[in-house]
Design brief:
Number of strands: 6
Structural class: alpha/beta
CATH topology of the largest domain: Rossmann fold
CATH class of the largest domain: Alpha Beta
Largest sheet: 6 strands, parallel
Length: 211
């Protein structure tokens, strides 16, 4: 493999508790009854699109505003999952090209990458503002391929959600599902990723063997 595309939240970044608790408070304010599982199923989709799904068409901005009224990273500090930074360093030492494809907006994605210690380890960032369509469409993966100057058969997409796997497959890229994020295992299995791993150690062994 020449290149690896990573999802950010729930894959590299231990941010699921922050996202879920923020969303629960926002939906409570807006009078929407929702479960943690429902929230997790939409992690990886831009907030405006998520809001429109649960609140109705045209109400995405309303949800976005409510979400950021409760968004407090100090309450649930973000960090890279243990072993992730070293994995990316090893892949770079072996000459791999690395990208992140995330539903976060550009500035928030940059701030997150910096705060969890990944600044300088990536060759490309594809955020929600970089493509007209977002996951599960192929566009983010195709944009990452363009920036990495890689072909689909040379690339692996790693993510914690069904949206990541679908995005990869729509772009003709093989996918690896990680089970420590927001994804529900049975749904990940049903999406038919080529690989599935249960720990960062397993992921490291896989990616280093492929490189």
């Amino acid at each position: 493999m020449k290149a690896f595309i990573f999802d950010l939240d729930g894959t590299l970044n231990d941010s699921v508790p922050l996202i879920v608790n923020t969303a629960l408070q926002a939906y409570q304010e807006l009078g929407v009854e929702i479960t943690e599982e429902e929230i997790k199923s939409y992690i990886g989709i831009p907030l405006i699109e998520t809001g429109e799904h649960f609140l109705g068409p045209g109400r995405g901005e309303e949800y976005l505003d409510a979400y950021f009224r409760y968004y407090d990273p100090a309450a649930y500090p973000m960090r890279a999952f243990p072993g992730i930074v070293e994995l990316l360093r090893q892949l770079r030492r072996r000459g791999a090209r690395l990208a992140v494809a995330t539903a976060k907006r550009h500035q928030m994605a940059l701030e997150t990458i910096d705060s969890i210690g990944l600044a300088g380890l990536l060759d490309a960032l594809v955020d929600s503002e970089a493509t007209e369509r977002r996951k599960p469409f192929a566009d983010p993966a195709l944009k990452a391929l363009e920036l990495l100057e890689a072909e689909p058969e040379q690339t692996l997409f790693i993510g914690d959600s069904v949206h990541d796997i679908q995005c990869a497959h729509h772009a003709g890229i093989r996918a690896c599902a990680v089970t420590w994020g927001a994804g529900i295992r049975r749904e990940l299995v049903a999406a038919e990723p080529e690989y599935m791993v249960d720990s960062v150690a397993e992921l490291s062994e896989l990616l280093l063997s492929l490189r």
